[in-house]
Amino acid sequence: MNYMNTNQKVVIDEDLWYIPNFLTESESTTLKQYCDEPIGWYITSRSPSIRNKFIGVMHGIHPKGTICPTRGIDLSLSAVFPTDEDERYADPLFWGVDGLLDRLASVLPKYLIRFTTLQSFWPFQEGIDNHGAFDWHHEKGNPGQKDDGMTGAWSLYLNNDFEGGELLFKYKPDIIIKPEPGMLVNIPITKDFTHKVNPVTSGIRHTLYGVCFEDINSERTISTGDDC
């Protein structure tokens, strides 16, 4: 398939595009520390091998064992960063002027919801459903789903030292995206771009992910205890 390069964006099909090397070397190094840090992870309800961690902003205290703990508020709605007394922490990597969140907002559909989540797929194990993978899904237009104003979904890949974990598209079998470090991918949210993640067979697949909404003041979270 021939890809079209427009202002660093490599257009694959309609609104499916990627930007290679979106991260700087310094950003990659900092994010690797988050990946390697053993604390702060929680297991998602979708699979015992898919683990999430909120980064860039500390989240509120939650009961032990809670799935999808309460995430911090969107600091982009505040004129100032938290004080030392505030339980939230604004990592300059994300929240500094021209930081990662500003750069993401400049290329992604309007408007970026600035909740950053690290999602890691651990290796597949026989006998466990969806272990190390996501099954076919799309974010918008599902039967009975209320239109919440979502405009986009994205993934920012952090590593490639793993096997499996390719991004596939159900109705576009010729498109296979193999994650590369620093690659930002804009994933269309409609049924035409129904997609899944192949099982990770070795290593750990680290990704930042998030969503965009029509309303910048949206209080909608990326996931809840029911669908994280």
Textual characterization of the structure:
- This protein has 228 residues and is mainly beta.
- The protein has a single domain (12-60, 87-213), classed as q2cbj1_9rhob like domain (Jelly Rolls), CATH 2.60.120.
- The protein contains three helices and 15 strands.
- The chain has helices at 25-36, 92-95, 100-107, and strands at residues 4-6, 9-13, 16-19, 42-43, 50-54, 117-121, 134-137, 150-157, 163-164, 167-169, 176-177, 184-187, 195-197, 200-202, 205-213.
- The protein has a nine-stranded antiparallel sheet, with no helix packed on it.
Q: Portion of residues in helices?
A: 10-25%
Strand content: 25-35%
CATH H level, superfamily name: q2cbj1_9rhob like domain
Question: CATH class, please?
Answer: Mainly Beta
By DSSP (H or I, 4+ residues per run), the number of helices equals: 3
- Per CATH, the architecture is Sandwich
Distance between the termini: 33 Å
